[in-house]
Amino acid sequence: MPSKTNNGVGIQVEDTKICVVMVGLPARGKSYIAQLAATFNVGNYRRHDAPQPTADFFDFSNPEGERKRRAAAEAAVADMLAWFRTGGVVGILDATNSTKERRKWVYDTCTAHGIEVLFVESKCDDEKTIMANIRDVKLTSPDYKGQDPEEAAQDFRNRIKHYEKVYKTIDGDKDEDNYTYLKLMNVGKQVIINRIQDYLQSRIVYYLMNLHIRPRSVWLSRHGESLYNLSGRIGGDMLLSPRGEQYARKLPDLVRESVGDDRPLTVWTSTLKRTIATARFLPAHYNQLQWKALDELDSGVCDGLTYQEIKDRYPEDFAARDEDKYNYRYRGGESYRDVVIRLEPIIMELERSEDILIVTHQAVLRCIYAYFMKKDQAKSPWMNVPLHTLIKLTPRAYGTEEVRYEAHIPAVSTWRGKGSTAKHENPTPESL
Ligand SMILES: O=P(O)(O)OC[C@H]1O[C@@](CO)(OP(=O)(O)O)[C@@H](O)[C@@H]1O
């Protein structure tokens, strides 16, 4: 019997481990979807042996190609199993897994190791989406690095043709009816769900059903420098300093420079004065929404104190927070882990949306940034996120692209190193 544990939101869940196995032809958004957890991308293993193969490598009647692709799949699965043994919970096996034989092998191997399998098939016959994916892959895949874009696109189309010859959709016939699977047709227009059995599987399905693979960007900004930032106090609901006010006035230009004039944008702020004030000069035709879930980490009894005051009044708490900043919960307040959990609806809505600009706070921004950049959430509380900087994140099949726009308006640093109570400390290179 599997044991039961608390999943951090107060719900008892079975101690399950799940391998999400992607299925589908190339250029159907699989790698894009798979960006979102610990991913074992068979292509990355194959590139050790065959860094930039042409399309005929993927011809299923090419024995050399077959052998190398099989070896890559075995290496990826072996590493994934080792990762599960170190405590991993949800792993993604990102490959085409386009034949029944390959799926059976993955299924048998995982279940023999006590790991549940959830197949996620992305089917798509919408030419526009496929072309956009081909363009994206051609621009970002290491397979085509340094190659002529047109030739790369043609070669990639030929590769897809080879896969089409052997590809079998998961059709729920007698061979595959016992599998747990989610089939997403044309980027979620139609969805088929088969044999979803437990809590974790249903959470993954809920999450995947909210994803889309259309191109979009997310812009992130902290509020302008606040009066509390100036005095080194945390939390509160203060207005902006004169330099913070300057940033608010400059933000529309920074946004225009990055977004362009006619692209529609939705702006999300927290419910606190400093983010609302920072967003107030943005064009009136941008939809603006305030989210309680974007409010700054609640510092409970320490709200409004400086780090020195916290250390003087609550020395044990100060030390405990430095010891484990991600899990430490302020008395009467929150931990970073709490913030990550309360951000779930925000992440879900972000995944459903097109272009969004979020004006929020240091702790919240660290968590959102870590999510998109696949950084370890447990390390994110020590990350430096400077004031007066607009960050543009664009999720792509092979990672999220980042561009930063600096307003060149001076602001204090609110970064703090472990053990320090300094008010405006300079960030260390590791924190950047
Ligand atoms: O978790 P640490 O590093 O203490 O930083 C979070 C803190 O960042 C601050 C600034 O120091 O956020 P904010 O951007 O909202 O002003 C504090 O209010 C908040 O408590």
UniProtKB/TrEMBL annotation:
EC number(s) given by UniProt: 3.1.3.46
Keywords assigned: ATP-binding, Hydrolase, Nucleotide-binding
GO molecular function: 6-phosphofructo-2-kinase activity; ATP binding; fructose-2,6-bisphosphate 2-phosphatase activity
Pfam family, one: 6PF2K
Domain of life: Eukaryota
Keyword Chaperone: no
Cellular component aspect of the GO annotation: cytosol
InterPro entries linked to this entry: 6Pfruct_kin (IPR003094), 6Phosfructo_kin (IPR013079), His_Pase_superF_clade-1 (IPR013078), His_PPase_superfam (IPR029033), P-loop_NTPase (IPR027417), PG/BPGM_mutase_AS (IPR001345)
Residues annotated as domain 6-phosphofructo-2-kinase: 12-215
GO terms under biological process: fructose 2,6-bisphosphate metabolic process; fructose metabolic process
Entry's family note: In the C-terminal section; belongs to the phosphoglycerate mutase family.
UniProt name for this protein: fructose-2,6-bisphosphate 2-phosphatase
Organism: Trichoderma gamsii
